[in-house]
Design goal:
The chain has about 100 residues and is mainly α. The protein has 4 helices and no strands. Helix 3 (about 50-70) packs antiparallel against helix 4. The protein is flat.
């Protein structure tokens, strides 16, 4: 839920045109506020490093896809390789957490 709310906030911030449009600006504020609330709650049960890496990593991948699909941003080979590295990093962190448990 924290990641989804952050993506709503990020997409709304892009759509706000530098905070010059009221509705997307309010949606950005709401999205980021809810994201912080839910992210803080997730850290009650998840280790901080893992929770943050997961939040940032998945958020980065989703934001890139939203940028490409909705905002017509370019998908270059470098973007694809970078996103694959992020995805692999999340998998490695996840497996490391399971080893500790």
């Amino acid at each position: 839920m924290a990641i989804a709310a952050e993506q709503v906030g990020t997409s709304a911030m892009k759509a706000s045109n530098g905070f010059s449009q009221l509705l997307p600006t309010l949606l950005a504020i709401a999205g980021y506020s809810l994201s912080m609330l839910w992210f803080g709650r997730s850290m009650r049960v998840l280790p901080m490093g893992f929770a943050y890496a997961l939040w940032v990593g998945i958020g980065m991948v989703v934001a890139s896809v939203i940028g490409i699909v909705i905002f017509s941003e370019l998908m270059t080979p470098a973007v694809i390789v970078g996103l694959l590295f992020v995805f692999v990093g999340i998998l490695v962190l996840n497996s490391a957490q399971q080893e500790v448990a």
